[in-house]
Structures are given as structure tokens and as C-alpha cells.
Amino acid sequence: ILNVEQSPQSLHVQEGDSTNFTCSFPSSNFYALHWYRWETAKSPEALFVMTLNGDEKKKGRISATLNTKEGYSYLYIKGSQPEDSATYLCAFSGGSNYKLTFGKGTLLTVNP
Amino acid sequence: NAGVTQTPKFQVLKTGQSMTLQCAQDMNHEYMSWYRQDPGMGLRLIHYSVGAGITDQGEVPNGYNVSRSTTEDFPLRLLSAAPSQTSVYFCASSRVGTQSSYEQYFGPGTRLTVT
């Protein structure tokens, strides 16, 4: 069983704060690292798929970086808004380009 | 496109009953999978398929069967429901490529309670 760890487990920030969280994964046999956003009562939706060491991806105020050699990825949110409140999941793909192992997620709450 | 659809949305079963959770996608995706989501456990892979006629076990396959007779459909069968199978079940699909990894699209989920 692959170990994909996310930290922190939960996070409360004020509107306008910038924040970041971490995903750790096995550094061997890496294929891809996915980030998903999961709002309450909805389904997970993809944010980024990252495959290359040093990759940086950005979508609006959200960005992510990838270090495959040391086995971690950071997700950054700049100027958090209440609508950013969600659980952020990372998922590791090792040895195949489709089968994912998910972390337990970071629950972000942005207070207005 | 409807994307990934799942039925039913909610289901209550008695211990020992069997049922099938339906999943369909209209995006012509080769890869389909079933996850269960339990508090504090995250999404865990039950079974997956990379094409019609091909299925394989994930992390927690016991008590579940799958088949993939068409590209569109990937039903999950509970053979004899147990309270430990109370969970929210998500179906997901994605493209498969030799050189890249593709985002997974999730269905709305089925909330199953076994009493």
C-alpha cells in the first residue's frame, strides 16, 4: 500500500490570507501527482495533473509545485476567499498513468 | 455530455442483501474506477478497469465484484452486504495515454447504509 500523506489535516484562515499545504508521496516509481478540490456535498474536481520534477502549475489564485526527487508537492492559495473552502486532495500515480492513491486531504475553511 | 452518472443516490440495505451500484460515462474514457469514502480514511480504490473486458482489484476489493462489458458502464456489485460496507461510493473515469496522466472525472456518489 502506497503512503500518500497530506498536512495539515485541517486549516482555518481569514479571508485575504494566503495559505499552503503539503502532499508527500513515494519518490520512487513516480508517474504523476494530481490535485483535486472537493466541496461539501459535491464530487472531487481536478485542479492540476503534474508529471515533471520542478513542474509549476497555476489556475487563478491557486498554484502548485512538484518535487519528485524528494517526494513532495505544495498547493498554494493566494488571497483566500470563502468560496475556496473545501477539502483539497492529492493523489499519487506510480508505475501506471491511471491508477491513483489518494491522500486523506486537507480541509480548508476560509472565514469571512 | 452528462459526464459520469451514478444510480442510486441513496440506498439502505439489510445485512446479507445484494445489490448493484450503477456507473456510466459518456466521454469514451477507457479507465473507470470505484472508490469508497469513509470518515478519516480518504478515497480508497475498490476495483478499476482500463477497458471493456479488463478489470483489476484495488486496495479494498473484498466483498465487491465488477465487470466491464462496454466502454460506458462499470457496475459495482455487493454480493452479501455487511455493515462495514456502509460508505459513500464514487465512480470515476479518465482517458488513458501512454505518455501522460489524465484527470479523473467523478460521479455524484452513492450513499449506502447497511443495517
Question: Secondary-structure blueprint of this entry?
Answer:
The complex is a heterodimer of chains A (112) and B (115).
Chain A (H helix, E strand, L loop, with lengths): L4 E3 L2 E5 L4 E6 L5 E9 L6 E6 L5 E4 L2 E6 L4 E6 L8 E9 L6 E2 L3 E6 L1
Chain B lengths: L3 E4 L2 E4 L5 E7 L5 E8 L3 E10 L2 E4 L6 E3 L9 E3 L8 E8 L10 E2 L3 E5 L1
Parallel strand pairs in B: 2-11
Antiparallel strand pairs in B: 1-3, 3-8, 4-5, 4-9, 5-6, 7-8, 9-10, 9-11
Report on the structure:
The complex is a heterodimer of chains A (112) and B (115). Chain A is an all-beta fold and 112 residues long. Chain A is built from no helices and eleven strands. Chain A has strands spanning 5-7, 10-14, 19-24, 30-38, 45-50, 56-59, 62-67, 72-77, 86-94, 101-102, 106-111. The model of chain A has no long low-confidence stretch (mean pLDDT 94). Chain B has 115 residues and is mainly beta. In chain B, strands 2, 4, 5, 6, 9, 10 and 11 form a seven-stranded mixed sheet that branches. Chain B is globular, with a radius of gyration of 14 Å. Chain A binds chain B through residues 1, 31-32, 34, 36, 42-46, 49, 51, 89, 91, 93, 97-105, and chain B through 31, 33, 35, 40-45, 48, 50, 58-59, 90, 94, 96-109.
